[in-house]
Specification:
Length: about 100
């Protein structure tokens, strides 16, 4: 599927991009190359390929799940303008 200059203009309009007339052919060529690559990738047989989260098969370092701050809920409830049953009361903003 080759994109024409007119189609590149339509895509640019939908994306709200301003493109100079002299650059349209360059953009069309680049977009056609990307679409060709996607077509080639779509034709590959990936039945035996295991899904992975990262191409380098790295693991995420996780921090220890430990509480590092003290509970200040009561303090913040005392200085809040309005509270009730442990909840902050705010003005109604949606009817």
């Amino acid at each position: 599927m080759a994109l024409s200059a007119d189609e590149v203009n339509k895509i640019a309009h939908l994306a709200r991009l301003g493109i100079d007339e002299q650059d349209i052919e360059h953009y069309a060529s680049d977009l056609n190359n990307i679409l060709d690559l996607m077509t080639q990738m779509g034709e590959l047989n990936t039945d035996d390929v295991q899904p992975m989260a990262h191409p380098l098969d790295q693991v995420q370092r996780l921090r220890e799940d430990a509480v590092k701050e003290e509970d200040q809920r009561d303090h913040f409830q005392k200085i809040a303008p309005q509270t009730e049953n442990g909840l902050y009361l705010v003005p109604k903003v949606i009817d």
